[in-house]
Amino acid sequence: MKLDDYFDLWSQDSKIDRTELGEESIKIPQLHHKYYKHFSVERLTLTKLQEQLKSLKKDKFEYFSGVMAEEDMVDRGWEPNQLRILKSDLNMYIEADKEIIDHTLKIAYTKEKVSFLEDVLRALNTRSFQISNAIKWEQFKVGI
Description:
Helix content: over 70%
Largest sheet: none
Number of helices: 5
Radius of gyration: 25 Å
Number of strands: 0
Order of helices and strands: HHHHH
């Protein structure tokens, strides 16, 4: 799911019907479950992407240092590296590689989704207090 999809979904689910506070209170566990499922999926995706990045960096290290087998390069669709790169400069070439940058951006995007979903779960954890305060306010307004 895209981050904008989560924004739209939460925009709808975050609304509290002030005329049905009891019903809103009952919906909290279902909403928590719904968003926790999304959170778990995104967190697992983040872990997978982070592990893939480690492997990609190792492959790029082998590629730029000239020790990668030609068949491995062909499998990945990489052209043989014609550059002679000093060992001290390898990290700079690896970090500036387009595939590494693209993968790092995917990780950042997924981290943003995980962070947003964590915030939604925190909001849901305090929702019962918000509903309780709204009920107390309504009682105060009518003099109970």
